[in-house]
Amino acid sequence: MPNDARLLLVDKASVEAVLQPDQVLDAVREAFVLHSRREGRVFPVVREALSTGGIFGIKSGDVASQGLLGFKAAGFWPANRKVGGEPHQATIMLIDPATGRPTCIIDGNAITTVRTGAAGGLGLQQLARQDSTSLCIFGTGVQASIQLDFALRALPALAEVRYLTPDRTRDEAFEARFAGRCTLICATDPNAAVAASDVVITATPGGGALFDADAVQLGTHLNCVGADTRGKRELPPGLLGRARLFVDDREQATQIGETQWAPDTACDEFGDVFTGQIKVDRKPADITIFDMTGLALQDLTVARLIHERASATGLGTSIAWPW
Questions:
Q1: Domains of the chain, with CATH numbers?
Q2: b/e per residue, 196-221, with b = 16+ CB within 10 A?
Q3: Which terminus, N or C, of the chain has the lesser number of Cβ atoms within 10 Å?
């Protein structure tokens, strides 16, 4: 009854307690499949700059057959660093599509981090050369770390990782996190690091091209994470035209992803790989790019997983939410 309605609140600690990488991979893969089959809808993205210096966005969607409806309100507030806070902020709300009433509010930071890492891992599984041994990553923050974590899971032959920080100095905490899993090299020349790598991951704030187009060698795969807003980019001009391009959503990529800089570039939607609508058929000399702008469906399938696990285990806080 309406007067008995309750709302489940799931904080960061509870989210992190139930997130398992393999389950997140499955949920994110499901999101790509739902999108490919058009069984899940992705609504237009809101992404706007604020007078406070932050960027605010909303990603939303639904899966009618699963009774799944919701949104993620998220963005980037760089000034948070000055007070010791995380600049990325996200909150996810699941809604009952029959009544419009909220059923669960979840801290979205951990979900965003891990689902994006999982999407990158799936991209490497499907698009990169499986004998790849060397990787170059731009960035050493939260997202760069999760991308490398999933990369090492996806490509067991990876042994050597070159990483680049903005000031080209060592990040000892980053190195400590991956000690024993690979050989880490703090690179100072971005072009040389890219040229020596089978896989390139860009996970930066997207302030501009990170390397020259001719540094990318034949056979390289690139996962690009940082361009998620109008005006952001990480790739140099001319590179998209040399590569086979995959995007999570074609329209979204041309609005806020790398493809905004070359909207007429031919591309495939990544989910179509899982449903068999397209085949990768990678040749040894192919350059492939996965332009990752993030699907609302990824947030929703992972949030559903969190909601189910929290409800089953008693995690989170249930509060009265009468009509």
A1: 2-111+297-320 (3.30.1780.10), 117-294 (3.40.50.720)
A2: bbbbbbbbbbbeebbbebebbeebbb
A3: N
Instruction: Give the residue carrying structure tokens 């187009």.
Output: 213
Distance, in Å, from the CA atom of 79 to the CA atom of 12, rounded to the nearest integer, reads 21
CB 182 within 8 A of CB 159: yes
**CA distance readout (Å), 215 to 88, 209, 238, 241:** 31, 12, 12, 14
What are φ and ψ of residue 151, in 5° steps? -65, -45
The rounded distance, in Å, linking the Cα atoms of 234 and 137 is 12
Going edge to edge, which strands form the sheet with 183-186? 183-186, 160-164, 134-138, 199-202, 221-224, 288-291, 244-247, 267-269
- Residue 1's pLDDT band, with cuts at 50, 70 and 90, is low
CA distances to 2, 84, 246 from 207, rounded to whole Å, are 48, 22, 22
pLDDT digit string, tens, across residues 240-294: 999 999 999 999 999 999 999 999 999 999 999 999 999 999 999 999 999 999 9
User: Is the pLDDT at 2 greater than 80, yes or no?
Assistant: no
